[in-house]
DNA sequence: CGAGAGGTTGACCCGGATCAAAATCAGTGG
DNA sequence: CCACTGATTTTGATCCGGGTCAACCTCTCG
């Protein structure tokens, strides 16, 4: 497989992607931006898409932001390696985490509706991203239409995901939420081609709590209990799912 | 103003819309489907859009459904009059309400992602809808592109709305949720051109509870307390906001 | 007018928030 | 490499919002 973005960014050719992705990095065909990349790839052959629309593999250091809440919308990002949290900064101290984005997932599509990003995106660990500059796309043509098609797919997937999240948050206990959260994380990593049993969770207990609507103390308590029950292994920030079926059991009922 | 849908449905011409919308019905230019209608209108002048794409003002009796969960996706609907609830039927008895749709709002866009509707839509009162048959649209062309643009706008607005809903549900008390819910309802009705102070809420206490993640008893208690505090007037299913500022106060803090 | 669904009100109880303190971790500079 | 420091995590104790159960009331509609 070849990196579909390479040709669009001749100036960083020295970073060209090997046949296999670097360890810890998502392969292009497992990446959420791939449908778009394919289209642009095709488009490029027709010389209809300007260079520089896609910027590949920008490195983002842990703690760095790729955009702030209310920044004017420019691009959608795909997480190539590492992970991000998106959150709404609150004057009252504690930020509201609205999402976690792992390898292969997209950040920032929500900025499409208004002109601005509705949240800040910050790297939870040293990461890298691909950037799709939607603003500089050609204004019409077949490839644009296909891109729109792709965006619609992504957006409606997002809507479906949020619906599930809402019903989960409303009716589930702390145990259920956390079990579901862990399963969702591993499942998402798995569909992106990450097959390791053990992986880094970059987020803090309070991040998870904010996201799931729980106090950080509760997150801590439940996680240690899960560990005692032999469902997970948790050392420092390394998490390992020991008994996925057991977790499903907890999440279901 | 003229009804933009009329010309597409000559066979129901006897139902033609008067200059002013019927009482209790949203005006076309206040309707969520209007951006799409305008485009199709324009397209029609160029004779590019097939007849029968838009079906105007189908009547839906109270309790009737316009589609069921897992039905194959065909159309997006706009509520012309009345209101709908969307919900996921649960084998365990109590359905999960995922949304309320009042005059001028859209129902069913979420079906775009998969091939199927992710929920059932049922009329809370005697209502009428416009139907946009997305499946039978022409496969390419300028008007299709503009339609996609419109869909993207609607979807990302939906995403933004859900984000807000999520953070609300997570961090807010029963009082806050209900105050916010009432304000949101009136605000939405207002932007659709409904300026009456008093209006019908077709939904039951348990519907509201399901939607907001509260027991129906709690909904009842809080609403009667709001009434005692002079914030609202509530007789049977007629609701009147007496003190919007007071409600905002409750919702904020 | 009667029956059944939906709404109100009261009593009780539990999950998880909150407050507090100890323990552990992650940087930082010497 | 280690000690120091602030941040994060863990653990314990207490408290309260809202869920649950139950009885009663009130509409709605056949």
TrEMBL record, chains A, B:
Keywords: DNA-binding, Transcription, Transcription regulation. It holds the Pfam family HTH_Crp_2. It comes from the Bacteria. GO terms for cellular component: cytosol. InterPro entries: cNMP-bd_dom, cNMP-bd_dom_sf, Env_Response_Regulators, HTH_CRP, RmlC-like_jellyroll, Tscrpt_reg_HTH_Crp-type_CS, WH-like_DNA-bd_sf, WH_DNA-bd_sf. One of its GO terms (molecular function) is DNA-binding transcription factor activity. Residues 172-245 form the HTH crp-type domain. This is Cyclic nucleotide-binding domain-containing protein. It comes from Sedimenticola selenatireducens.
